[in-house]
Amino acid sequence: MSKRLRDNLSSRYFEAANKLTSKGARRRVVAYVESYDDVFVWRAILNQVETDKLYFEVMLPSRDRRLERGKKAALMAVLADKVGHDMIACVDADYDYLTQGATETSRLINSSPYVFHTYAYAIENLQCYSPSLHEVCVAVTLNDHQIFNFEEYLRQFSQAIFPLFVWNIWFYRSPNYKDFTINDLLRCIEMGTFSIRKAEDQLSLLRQRVDKKVQALKAHYPDARQSWQEVKADIKRLGVTADTTYLYIQGHHLFDKVVVPMLTKVCDQLVGERQAEIAQESVHGTQRRNELSCYSSRVEDIVSMLRKNTGFLRSDIGQRIRADVERFVQSTTENNA
Questions:
Q1: Torsion of CA 211, 212, 215, 217, to 10 degrees
Q2: Where are the alpha helices (DSSP H) in the chain?
Q3: Which of 149, 225, 296, 337 would you label with 74, given CA atoms 20 to 30 Å apart?
Q4: Contacts of 114 (CB under 8 A, 6+ apart)
Q5: 60 with 39: CB under 8 angstroms?
Q6: pLDDT one-digit tens code per residue, 18-31
Q7: What is the mean pLDDT of residues 109-134?
């Protein structure tokens, strides 16, 4: 494809391409996403709403023969007024959803009918949807023994960090966001090495650190009490609750620093249980070695399985994203009837 043609790709281009197909053919809508990992997740979302009249093709935006990844690349089309009924952008919400128009990108995210976002901070947060994490463990270990309550742990984690998270959004809605950045928040809520046995103690220490930082912020910004309460009420209106704050913190931190270490410890114990069971039930050494080899070959990689986790589709956020895309599909179908 020539550089000139690539630079002129737009909804109107794909609309013209659709008109060249037969009258009864399904309409193709191109959906640009931010990164390779997003392709699978957005395919799972969009697959739910495809009809006999319309389907989506998920793609990464490209320019000047280089793959450009990230929200800036996906939103190039919006900034150039190129999206429409035949080309959409699907992006991570980051803080742009919660800051509600504080920046140009936030205004685009919240206003364009052709830009769809995760509501949660990122795809990684959706992949870490707590009610689905036991299913991930089963897929990894082929052991259905529930030895840890992921939902309760992430609920308590969320409740512990919620007051500090409200402060972080308060800052990002003001010109003083550099005074308490996302990185500052993440340093405060760092959990360290996860331990199943010491999970409660680690949560207790987290609460102490958060409370100390909150008290310091209150002392430094004594006039922020009312505006902080207003931000708290507003983000609750947007869907954030004290129980689900984990869905709105930086996705890479949640994925890499909280959930993967937790899953690793739990899955290691589940694999050990299964191996001990095989050793105990084997009649002789050869059978034990064969069964252990067979089982080991079926144990999956945690990160790979987590990245393919679509359990969030049944969550409130998953249903909300689906409803957004369904409205687009209905509008596009009616527009081209």
A1: -110
A2: 3-7, 11-19, 36-47, 71-79, 104-111, 123-127, 133-141, 150-172, 182-188, 199-220, 225-237, 251-253, 260-281, 285-296, 302-307, 316-335
A3: 337
A4: 11, 78, 83, 84, 85, 87, 88, 89, 328
A5: yes
A6: 554 556 678 999 99
A7: 96
Q: What are phi and psi of 217, to 5 degrees?
A: -65, -40
Q: For residue 254, give the DSSP letter.
A: I
Give the separation between CA 323 and CA 45, rounded to whole angstroms. Answer: 10
Region 177-185 average pLDDT: 95
Report the candidate in 44, 93, 137, 55 with the shortest Cα–Cα distance to residue 333.
Answer: 55
Residue closest to 112 by CA, chosen among 129, 94, 96, 124:
96
**Does 15 have pLDDT greater than 80?**
no
Long-range own/partner contacts, residues 149-154 (CB < 8 A, 24 or more apart)? 150/262, 153/199, 153/203, 153/262, 154/128, 154/130, 154/246, 154/258
Distance CA 321, CA 88 (A): 14
As a whole number of angstroms, the distance between CA 34 and CA 21 comes to 28
